[in-house]
Design a protein that fits this description.
It is built from two helices and 22 strands. It is an alpha+beta fold and about 280 residues long.
């Protein structure tokens, strides 16, 4: 009996060693595999986030305004409109009523484009003239002008630099004092260049860019040009109602105090306050 018992104890110990050792090995192996998978997942590039929108509020907008640039400040909208033959304007607009409170017409040879507010001045681009105008915000008195190569489309700023689009996939960063170009980034969705960048607005560390002729806004990293998000605004077409002349979506303004985003378009009779909804 003593010999049998010894054999049984030895067998049991061997089985325990094998089973528990294998279980322990398997668990540690699984943990290591999970850790490796997590590391690989973190290293993989993440694609842009996609957003739909909801309409928070609708405001009237001049249906004859061919909107090229839009800015919000202290309860008012400042708007740049485009056309030749003395039809391009700089405007101050009452948000609630859409009434134009002040306007200034550009000389007939200029086609107005993007607009931004830098400190107490409004900076307005022109399309193919290679010239930008700087105005005192309250009086619309021109205080400066500057030149740039190529076309002018949209303009905004990130608190340090002016950021300009020219209809390509490139964003140019300009010194706000000398207006000299400091750097460029190419806007890419993964490896695809995103062309037709139009009106711009800097919102919470990202550059929002209208894509010309699409009811879409790209959210772009100012550091490297990577597309971080896409906003689908196609639902606004139905919200416009039965209008005949509504052209491209164009015009983004941001109220940083109340965290409100406003959008409109060329010849749109309405301006919308929107909220982003991740898909």
């Amino acid at each position: 009996m003593g010999l049998v018992r010894a054999v049984l104890v030895t067998v049991a110990a061997f089985v325990s060693l094998v089973c528990f050792g294998q279980t322990s090995y398997s668990a540690s192996g699984l943990l290591a595999a999970d850790s490796a998978k997590a590391e690989r997942a973190e290293s993989l590039p993440t694609g842009p986030t996609h957003y739909d929108i909801t309409i928070v509020k609708t405001y009237p907008h001049d249906p004859e305004a061919f909107t090229q640039g839009l800015v919000y400040s202290d309860g008012f909208l400042y708007e740049s409109t485009g056309a030749y033959q003395s039809a391009s304007t700089l405007r101050k607009v009452d948000l609630e009523t859409g009434k134009v409170l002040k306007d200034q017409t550009l000389p007939r040879q200029y086609f107005g484009e993007g607009l931004t507010l830098w400190r107490e001045t409004l900076i307005q681009l022109t399309w193919r003239s290679g010239i930008g105008f700087v105005y005192e915000r309250d009086t619309f008195q021109k205080v400066d002008e500057f030149q740039y190569k190529g076309e002018g489309w949209g303009i905004t700023h990130d608190g340090k630099s002016l950021v300009m689009s020219d209809g390509s996939a490139v964003l140019r960063f300009l010194d706000p004092e000398s207006y000299q170009e400091m750097r460029q980034v190419v806007v890419l969705d993964e490896h695809l260049p995103i062309r037709n960048l139009n009106e711009l607005e800097y919102i919470k560390g990202k550059i929002f860019a209208n894509i010309w002729q699409k009811d879409t806004i790209a959210m772009v990293s100012p550091e490297n040009g990577k597309v971080l998000g896409w906003i689908d605004l196609s639902s606004l077409r139905n919200a416009l109602g039965p209008v005949q002349k509504a052209d491209a979506l164009n015009g983004i303004a941001y109220d940083a105090v109340r965290d409100r985003i406003f959008v409109t378009g060329k010849l749109w009779p309405k301006l919308f306050e929107i909220k982003l909804v991740p898909r």
